[in-house]
Amino acid sequence: MEAIIDMSQLAGTTLFQRSALPSRAQLDLHVDGPQFLALVHCLDLTGDLLDQLAAAAHEVYREDLERRGYRPGPVHDEAAKISPSLRPYADLAEEDKEQNRASVRDIPAKLARAGYVMTPAMSGEASSGFPGGLLDQLAEDEHDRWMTAKAAAGWTYGTPTDEAARQHEAMVPWADLPDSQKDKDRALVAGIPAILSRCGYAVIPIPP
């Protein structure tokens, strides 16, 4: 940190701002540059903003399920393409709302690993998408995060998915997931720019 401060452009300033930081190449000499810059740019996802983003994440997820032919139902049935997740966000159980909040809280970390950052969108600013290989890695990261959270809440593997018994058929390593389940994680990650844009934010590469 002392080296970073020494390299920063602080002459004639009274406040250490992000614009005073050294270049990414200089940062890379001492820290993981993209990760460091992502933390510097990271927004605190709490309160109303967190709930707005969680609701937006759920709507993007619902829209993807509907595009792929799922319909609402009281219990999960993958074979029949029935999902209780098609309920509006306001009608979700608190545990399911928290699952959406947890996914949103992890967005800045996902973006950091990919070399991106979320920022308040300027007029006409479009979000960046993720290339294919990166999309799969981020989707696998999301699946691992989801499975860890489910296990902490007392869920175990079981087929078919049974909410009452707290068993889920997707609680297996990424490599063992069927493509239909992987596609859900891919869609969630690919939808991050849309999730953020609904709340006035954009996804951009970490500034050089």
Question: What does the secondary structure layout of this molecule look like, with pairings?
Answer:
Elements: H1 2-7, H2 24-27, H3 33-41, H4 47-67, E1 71-72, E2 82-83, H5 94-105, H6 107-114, E3 116-120, H7 132-152, E4 156-157, E5 167-168, H8 179-190, H9 192-197, E6 201-205
Parallel strand pairs: 1-2, 4-5
Antiparallel strand pairs: 3-6
Helix pairs in contact: 3-6, 4-5, 7-8
Descriptive report:
With 208 residues, the chain is mainly alpha-helical. It has a domain of 116 residues. The chain is built from 9 helices and 6 strands. A two-stranded parallel ribbon has the order 1-2. The chain has a two-stranded antiparallel ribbon with strand order 3-6. Strands 4-5 form a two-stranded parallel ribbon. The longest helix has 21 residues. The chain starts with a helix and ends with a strand. The model has no long low-confidence stretch (mean pLDDT 85).
Q: Report the major sheet.
A: 2 strands, parallel
The assigned structural class equals mainly alpha
> Tally of extended strands?
6
Largest beta sheet: strand ordering: 1-2
What is the N-to-C order of secondary-structure elements (H for helix, E for strand)? HHHHEEHHEHEEHHE
Give the rounded overall mean pLDDT. Answer: 85
Distance between the termini: 19 Å
Inertia-based shape = elongated
**Percent helix range:** 40-55%
Strand content: 5-15%
**Stretches with pLDDT under 50, minimum 5 residues:** none
Rg result: 20 Å
Count of helical regions: 9
